[in-house]
Amino acid sequence: MNEKNRSGPAARRRERFSNKSAAVSAKYLRRMQELSGAPESIQPFFSVLENIFVQMQSVPCPAGMKTVGTYCAMVPQELICAAGAMDIKLCSGSITAFSIGDDISPRDACPLVKAVAGFQEIGQVPLYSDCSLMVVPITCDCKKKLAGMLSDSCRVHTMQVPSDPRRDSAVEEYVGELRRLIPVLEETTGNPIGEREILNAIRLMAEAQYEFSRFLRYKKLDRILIRGTHAMAVMNALSYMPLTDWTRALRQLNAEMDIRERESFVITRKRQPRILLTGSPVAFPCIKIPLLVDEMGGSVVADETCMGDRFMYDPVVVTEASFDGMLHSLANRYLRPCSCPVFPNNEKRIYRLRQMIKDYRVDGVIYHVLRGCLVFDYEYQLIENVMAELDIPVIRVETDYNEEDVEQLRIRIEAFMELIKMKGRD
């Protein structure tokens, strides 16, 4: 790079972006840390978010390991792990990148795509620039255009998602997509993917899911042992930590949760409204919704979004440990239980929400809609009708990756908390 490029307008713009992005991320991380009752064992998860978004460091993967960026929970993490690479989920909630992408993307594009466009425009965030491959399932029109945009700076592999997972042929179609993905991963990493590698990766993921199932049990208890925002920090950190490191850190956190349960620890003696968050994903640093819930006296005890509990909910069930058998097991795990609203029939999502409301003893539902995400917005009426049937208050919250609506959201969420409290006193 010549001296002009190092000190010219583009360089100054990149420096301003870095400074502002780090400042915004540090502010939200500080607000998370200042919430009372944070477990000591949550620090590794905070540290990862700080390193990635405040210090803007590379992901902490072993030396020589390739990183593969993914833009949807429907990409099997097990295959990336089997290839000896680290899976990074790139659906960031960067407020600063969104503001840049907003100038170069269509007005009605969703905030996630605008944030990615902003990162592409600046081109200096290690989280993105370190990726050797990006995998983009085509689940909506914006993801389709996103894949084309990303291909200007990185190798991109697209995956076609069957439109109706209820069809028997849908699993075979998805297995075909996995077969297309495998040689791309092998070429990217230089490592072969065989039966042993896939089985080992499935076992590593199963260990993580076991610890996560323990974590969910603590969230279901009547006494609030951990704040919803802190639980979301755990799930967001999964996107940027090696799987074994995340599992080990979660095991330590679960041990602390076990002590809290035995010692009758509570975040607060006051009765907190128990909130289920569903709809569009909530990604750090744009975590204003769960933060406001905590600050207004509630607690997000259940998170049905694809950046939350849903991602680790369903384990892979291996009925036949052959190469073909395990691909079918992966296809069944990532396709059949998926409750994403991109599918024409989404009875599974209604069933899961009903079950979560019962299991977590939910008092109210916040339906989060990222502006421009039409598939989630389209399902709100259906969810509202189901909640009316269950006599559960629900509020639709539409927002994007900016801070201009924080005070308006604060007023609405505070009023929603009071509504739930009044309903509980009736």
The topology string of helices and strands comes to: HHHEHEHHHEHEHHHHEHEHHEHHEH
Parts with pLDDT < 50 across at least 5 consecutive residues? 1-5
Radius of gyration based on Cα positions: 21 Å
Q: Looking at the structure, what is the overall shape?
A: globular
Tally of helical runs: 18
> Can you list the strand order of the major beta sheet?
2-1-3-4
Helical coverage, percent range? 40-55%
| Most strands sheet | 4 strands, parallel
Explain how this protein is built:
Helices cover 54% and strands 10% of the residues. It has a 4-stranded parallel beta sheet with strand order 2-1-3-4, with helices on both faces. The protein has a 4-stranded parallel beta sheet with strand order 6-5-7-8, sandwiched between helices. The termini are far apart. Helix 3 (43-53) packs across helix 11 and helix 10 packs parallel to helix 12 (243-262). It is α/β, with parallel strands linked by helices and 426 residues long. The protein is built from 18 helices and 8 strands. Mean pLDDT is 90; it is low at 1-5. The protein has helices at residues 3-7, 9-34, 43-53, 77-82, 95-104, 111-122, 126-129, 141-150, 168-189, 195-220, 228-237, 243-262, 288-295, 323-335, 347-359, 374-378, 380-390, 406-425; strands at 67-70, 86-89, 133-138, 156-160, 274-279, 299-303, 364-370, 394-399.
